[in-house]
Amino acid sequence: MPKSLPNALDLPKPELREADENGSVDSLKLLNGGNVSVRYDDMQTTDLITLNWPLAGSPYPPIEPQNGDEAGCINFYIPPEYIALWLDTYALFTYTVTRNGESQTSLQGGVRISLPSNLPQAQILEAFDGKLDLSLLCCNDPILYIPPWAFAGKIQTINCYISGFYPDDTQAKLYPFKDAEVTDEDLRLGWRRAIPRALLQQLKHNSGLYLLASVRYSEAVPYRSFDSLSLTLLTDPNLKLSPPELKEAVHTEFDGWLVNPINTVNGAHIVVAYEGMCSGDTVCPTLTGTPGPGTVELECRQPVEGETSLVFAVPPSVIRANFEQAITLTYNVTRCDGSHWSSPERHVKVLGITGLPKPGIEQATGDRVDLNTFGDDATAVAPIWHYAMEQDCCWVWVTGTREDGSSYLFYVLEGKPLTAAWLRDGVDTPIARTKLQKLADCSEFNLHFAANFNGRCDLDTAVEFPVVTFSIEQEALILPPPRVCEAVGDQLTLWNGRDGVTVRVEYERISPNQMIDVQWLKTDGTSLPLTSKPGNSDPGYVDFAIPREAVIHGAGKTILINYTVTSACKMAPSKTLALKVSVPTRLPTPMVPEATPPATQGAILDLRTFSGDAQIIVNDENFDKVWWFSLEGQKGWLECTGTKEDGSSHTVRVMTGQLITLSDMNNGLKRVLARSDLEAFRNKTPLAIVFKVTTDGSPDVSEAIEFPLLELTLRKRFRDVTDFDPNKKDWNGWQKGAGATDPRDLVLKEAGGQYYLFDWGYTNTQDLATQREKLFKVFSDLEIGRTYEFSADVRDNSGARPLPRIALVASGQEIVAPTLLDTRVWRTLKSVFTASSSTVRLSVDNVQLGLGGNDFDVTLLVVEEV
Question: How far apart are CA 343 and CA 328, in angstroms?
Answer without folding.
Answer: 11
